[in-house]
From TrEMBL:
This is Pentatricopeptide repeat. Residues 464-489 are annotated as: Disordered. The keyword Nucleotidyltransferase does not apply. Keywords: Repeat. One of its GO terms (molecular function) is RNA binding. GO terms for biological process: RNA modification. The keyword Repeat applies. InterPro entries: E_motif (IPR046848), PPR_At4g14850-like_plant (IPR046960), PPR_rpt (IPR002885), TPR-like_helical_dom_sf (IPR011990).
Amino acid sequence: MQKGFLPNSYTFPPLMKSCKKMIGSSQKATGQKCHGQAIKNYVVDVLPVQNSLIHMYASFGLIDSAWRVFDGMSTRDLVTWHSIVDGYVKLGELVVAHRIFDKMPIRNVVSWNIMITGYLNAGNPGCGLKLFREMVKTGLKEDEKTVALMLSACGQSARLKEGRSVHGSLMKNFLKSNLIVDTALIDMYSKCKRVESAKRVFDSMVKKNLVCWNTMILGHCLHGCPEDGINLFEEMVRRGDSKGGMLCGHNKSKIRRDEEHVILPDEVTFIGVLCACARSGSLSKGRAYFNQMVNVYCIKPTFAHYWCMANLYAGAGLLQEAEKILMSMSMPDGDEEEEEEEKEDRWLSDDSMLWGSLLGLCRFRGDVDLGEKIAMRLIELEPHNSSWYMLLLNIYAAAGRWEEALKVKELTKERGVSRKPSCSLFDLNKIVHDFKLGENSNQPGMIQVYAMVDELARRLSLPKRGTGTSTRSYCLTERPDTSSERYQK
């Protein structure tokens, strides 16, 4: 502009995309300035600019601003509808998202994938499968992402029969091996406790990436034989060692660029390995792998690694060491000029949103005091994360401390904390919890624990344990109305 050139409609979409990638509190202000400049230069009514605005505001969590842009548009295309639906889906507003989805004048496979993904991320695979069946009735053909989503839904809900049906359909329609779908098959069979079938798919793959290796390692470590998972990990490490893979820093990055077929373990790999050590009660191995992760591969431990180590110590009867390792977790180092709030947000967003449910193990172990201390500290670190309040509430419920549980709920209302679902590629926030719950479900006293959790659900009008529903996930036939008039347009 200083050289006399004025921005046009082609200028703003990439600008708004750049605003999304900015880090820190300035991104929203910068995005709003770009919006103002679009108005000033008379291009705000151009369709690609409007679509970029919706997508940008939705990515900031400013869904009301995104809706105002959408509501004021005279012309809309598929990108417009996808952007607004995806915005509500990512906020967990599935009722509103589905209303808008139902009003779409035309839908393609991407439209259905967005809604199915929303239900899976909200922990409602049954509704995702039901939506897929509706899509099939319309005559639309699924793509590889749809297939991966269906396999994920079957894995989440342990629907082995349906998962096998999807696999059979793949063998008829897909002649070539597909990395994404094959990895989803491994994940599905592992979660359905058919690790041998998952291993056959893994062995048949011509090309494997880190995600694929991690999925198979996790399958062994969490759902099959932990020793097999550790052996597979060792095989992957040996392959990396043969190319000089056990290097840190810039040398490690150089290997990744120069030797694409070299696969080095990451933080997810070691989560599986440490869980395997916890299952087998191998404290010495767990310590060795933790040190290898830090000192050989230069991987900074996350909350998940500390939690796995704490369970390993607790399983060996070393409860003080377990408490010490969790309570001594430090915030990440960073630039001294970086704002403390931004450093804290970065740490919490990377770990806590993915691993909050792991702390729910405290209620099954009976370590109420330990769980209470950890939950209190996490609430102090992140007072607006609903996961920590729900954790503390569940811990009190398991102990029958109903007054404290009610106080926690009142505290969430006072602070305006709302529940927002978290997600990850392989639902890593659930895997350790599911493993421990499955192993301890037959132990003495568990019936009483379940009864207390259900009693709390009744008193607080929450879904009961095992119903498969949540406050953010609704089946297609049971979508409550929203009161706001704007959603009726």
